[in-house]
Amino acid sequence: MTRAAVSRRRFLQLAGAGMLALTGTALTGCGNSTSGEGSDKGSKLAAIKSRGHLNAGVKKDVPGYGYYDTAKGRFEGMEVDLCYQIAAAVFGVSYKEARAQELVEFTDVTPKTRGPLIDNGQLDVVAATYTITDERKKSWDFSTPYRTDYVGLMVKKRSGFTSIEDLDGKVIGVSQGATTQSLIEQMIKDNGFSCKPEFRAFSGYPIIKSSLDAGNIDVFAMDRSTLAGYMNETVELLQPEVKFGEQGYGVATKKGCDLSAVVDQVICDRLADGWLDQEVKTWGLV
């Protein structure tokens, strides 16, 4: 980081306490975010400003959403950009300034680790294709959904599968900590399919795809927009016309903290001004 950037960050640290009264709990969103604490004691906003940057959890293996480009040495994707929008709101700067001054530090997360890293205070926000569910809302605050997706079933073209019924006794690979298995089981029940597939959980998406390519599993199941980053001429979606498992992605924060309302307002504003729609186009999301 340049000397000028350090100076700017230090200025924001010193100004943080004074700015707190102008942001945070006074903001209300278009969803049902919790307004959180109203004083500096235990304030997440005050802690972030004192620290000088936002700690954000994103995916490292979901092209278009959160992906770590080893050649460039940085995270990129729509959710990465969204974290800079949140930092801009917290520090009272523009989106471009938030990026230029590196006001976000990223940590890669998995479905298994993202919640606990919020709980232990290591992360302020998680924007990692995190599906909002009633059960999860008991433990964390979630913003208004910024993206809606459905579950897809990726199979090898050579498999010969033409129907979900063909998955009887077959092995479906899913991500640890995700809701995918339960959504597939519910879809099978709702549609009256008689198949009974098996499930195998993996720690990351690349290993699921490699297991599919190696023939160790028969299906790679995940959100369709995630699968899009792993599509090639050898694979296809099985019965894509069967839409199921609708899920809204939200930014997660610590339950009841004063950051939650700020995050929700950012999502509402970026939905309203079309920025998120443009991000979908920019990153080629489906």
From TrEMBL:
Transmembrane segments: none
GO biological process, one term: amino acid transport
InterPro entries assigned: Bact_solute-bind_prot3, Solute-binding_3/MltF_N, TAT_signal
Keyword Nucleus: no
Domain Solute-binding protein family 3/N-terminal: 53-279
Gene Ontology terms: cellular component: extracellular region; outer membrane-bounded periplasmic space
Protein keywords: Signal, Transport
SMART domains: PBPb
Family the entry assigns: Belongs to the bacterial solute-binding protein 3 family.
PANTHER family linked to this entry: ABC TRANSPORTER GLUTAMINE-BINDING PROTEIN GLNH, AMINO ACID ABC TRANSPORTER PERMEASE
Protein name: Transporter substrate-binding domain-containing protein
Organism: Collinsella aerofaciens (strain ATCC 25986 / DSM 3979 / JCM 10188 / KCTC 3647 / NCTC 11838 / VPI 1003)
